[in-house]
Amino acid sequence: MAAKQQDVVALILDDHRAMEDLFHRMRSVEADRAKALREFSALLIAHAEAEEAEVYPALKRFRHIDDDEVEHGSEEHQEGNEALLALLEVDDVGSDDWDEKLEGLVQAISHHTDEEERTILNGARENVPAERREELGAAFSKVRGKYLAQDCGSIDNVRKVVGKS
C-alpha cells in the first residue's frame, strides 16, 4: 500500500493546530503539563527542522514567495527554540516561573505560526503547483519522522539546536 500523499501546506497547518492544543494542555492545571511539554518539544523541533531542511529551501525557488519572509521564518524558529529551552529548564510545572516561560513560548510560536500562515503558506498555496506541494509534503514528513524517532525534543538535543551545548 502506497504512503498517503499530502500537501505540505496541510501538513504544516496540522502541526500548528496540534501545537495550539498542546499549549492548552500545558496551561491546564488538570493536565499532565510535563507530558504535554515533552510532546510539544518533540513536535516543535521535528517540525522546524523538517521545514528548514526541505520546505524553506524549495520555496525560495518560487518567484512569488518572498525570500525575506522565508529567512525571517528561520530566525523565528531560533527564537521559538530558545523560548522552548527556557521552559524545559524550569523544574516545577506548577511554578510562576513555568507560567512565565510558557507564555513566552506561546507568544513566540503563535507570532511565528500566524506570520508563516499569512505569508509563506499562502504564497505556497498560490504559487507552488499541487504536485510539487505533495512532493514537499512527502519530504517534510520523512524528515519530521526521522527527528521524532530520535528523541529530538530532549533537553540535551534542544540545547544543541539552540547552540548552548
How would you sum up this structure, described in words?
By secondary structure, the chain is an all-alpha fold. Helices cover 78% and strands 0% of the residues. The protein has six helices and no strands. α1 packs antiparallel against α2, α1 (8-27) crosses α5 and α2 packs antiparallel against α3 (67-88). The longest helix is centred in the last third of the chain and has 32 residues, at 96-127.
What is the gist of this entry?
78% of the residues lie in helices and 0% in strands. With 165 residues, the protein is mainly α. 33% of the residues are buried.
Architecture blueprint of SSEs:
Elements: H1 8-27, H2 33-59, H3 67-88, H4 96-127, H5 130-149, H6 155-162
Helix pairs in contact: 1-2, 1-4, 1-5, 2-3, 2-5, 3-4, 3-6
Oligomer: single chain
Q: How would you describe the shape?
A: elongated
Helix content class: over 70%
Largest sheet: none
- Taken as a percent bin, the fraction of beta residues is under 5%
Distance N to C terminus: 42 Å
Content-based structural category: mainly alpha
Query: What is the typical, i.e. mean, pLDDT?
Result: 92
Q: What is the chain-wise order of helices and strands? A: HHHHHH
Computed Rg:
16 Å
- What low-confidence regions span 5 or more consecutive residues with pLDDT below 50? none
Tally of helical segments:
6
What is the number of beta strands?
0
